[in-house]
Specification:
The structure holds 2 protein chains of 2 kinds. In chain A, helix 6 (115-134) packs across helix 9. Chain A has helices at 9-18, 22-44, 47-63, 74-91, 105-110, 115-134, 137-148, 153-160, 164-192. By secondary structure, chain A is mainly alpha-helical. Chain A contains 9 helices and no strands. The longest helix of chain A has 29 residues, at 164-192. In chain B, helix 1 packs across helix 2 (20-32) and helix 1 (3-14) packs parallel to helix 3. The chains are: A mainly alpha, B mainly alpha. Chains A and B meet through helix 2, helix 3, helix 5, helix 6 and helix 7 of A and helix 1, helix 3 and helix 4 of B.
């Protein structure tokens, strides 16, 4: 954890930015903006609100760049800022987030051309998103960082400022609950058909 | 290995996050336990389903421009805040602060000292020689004109009758 992440391209870009190269920050922004929007989306459920939060996260990163030390992987630092910011913002009474379904092209593509399979996949995805939103924040964040952003347990622990065994426990509980809901959903659909 | 221990570490096992030895023991348990195996299969299906359920949306067309606008505003705020801080620092900078502090201290000291000293009355400009107060050489020097004209001043009462005397001359001529 204390090793320098100088082999990490992002860490090198961040150091270059610290030394006065604004183009390095632009590259980091372009590289990670989608991931940060997607992470914020797990808090808001709305793409427009998630974009707003993601922009604010990058502003914070820009202004706090001098505090970055290459002891941490850049993405760990970035997502730590993102999580703290999203948590603070969704708790604000002035910011009321309302979930709305969004049309996911990816789910459609995965189902091929079969309309029945497409409908089933979309229904499953929608159910899963609802259940994900209903998870406690720490379980949802751990799952998002693991499945969506490919972080190791060690990185998740550092991002969320918890122990590795806590990460194991969070992921286990989240998956157990979602798997049970998924099974219920499949049974329900099976009974309907 | 018991089912409870497997369940606790199942996600870490499937994610390749366990030590090789622990992972082998879990794999051995799964071969012989249908319940834990079913749970492992459900976790695997879930991982695939999550990937499909959580697509990463493309940023909107105005995303970058909105970010730059927010960044510019935040940098301006930061610059204003740091200017305000440096103004405060300048105000409390040592030479200026020391000068101001010295002025205040001198004023306070003067007020205290003046308050403690007995009130000194200025000497009257024309003190009489009969005054009981001792008269210094300086007093005499300052009132030298008065001393020179003292015989005249002493007869001022008589001089006040000059108008009446002049009137008497006129009266005598009229009677003649």
């Amino acid at each position: 954890m204390n090793d320098l992440h100088l082999g990490d391209d992002d860490a090198r870009l961040m150091l270059a930015f610290q030394q006065g190269d604004p183009a390095s920050f632009e590259r980091l922004f372009q590289k990670h903006k989608r991931a940060v929007i997607s992470f914020a989306l797990r808090f808001t459920g709305r793409v427009d609100e998630a974009e707003e939060l993601a922009q604010e996260v990058f502003v914070k990163c820009y202004l706090a760049a001098s505090s970055y030390e290459p002891r941490a992987k850049f993405t760990t630092w970035l997502f730590r800022i993102a999580r703290n910011h999203c948590l603070n913002e969704v708790r604000r009474p002035s910011r009321r987030y309302k979930s709305e379904p969004f049309d996911d092209q990816q789910a459609r593509a995965g189902a091929g051309d079969d309309p029945e399979a497409l409908a089933a996949t979309r229904a499953l995805s929608a159910a899963l998103r609802r259940e994900l939103e209903a998870l406690p924040e720490n379980q949802r964040s751990a799952l998002s960082l693991s499945r969506e952003h490919g972080m190791s347990y060690d990185e998740i622990a550092e991002t969320m400022d918890v122990s590795i065994s806590a990460v194991k426990s969070l992921l286990n509980r989240a998956k157990k609950r979602l798997a049970a809901k998924l099974a219920q959903h499949m049974e329900h659909r099976h009974a309907m058909s | 290995m018991r089912c409870h221990d497997v369940e606790k570490n199942l996600s870490a096992h499937l994610d390749g996050e366990l030590e090789a030895e622990q992972s082998q023991r879990i794999a051995a348990h799964l071969e012989g336990c249908a319940s834990c195996r079913g749970q492992a299969q459900a976790f695997g299906l879930l991982d695939d389903a999550i990937g499909a359920a959580l697509p990463q949306p493309e940023p909107s067309a105005g995303f970058d421009a909105a970010f730059r606008g927010k960044l510019e505003a935040a940098r301006l705020d930061q610059a204003r805040a740091s200017q305000a801080v440096s103004r405060k620092r300048r105000w409390f900078s040592w030479p200026l602060f020391a000068g101001a502090a010295a002025t205040v201290a001198a004023t306070v000291l003067a007020v205290v000292l003046i308050g403690k000293e007995p009130t000194t009355q200025p000497l009257p400009r024309h003190r009489t020689l009969a005054s009981a107060q001792p008269v210094s050489d300086l007093d005499l020097a300052q009132n030298l004109d008065l001393l020179k004209n003292y015989p005249v001043v002493e007869k001022l009462d008589t001089l006040e009758d000059f108008d009446a005397i002049a009137g008497l001359d006129g009266l005598e001529e009229a009677l003649r």
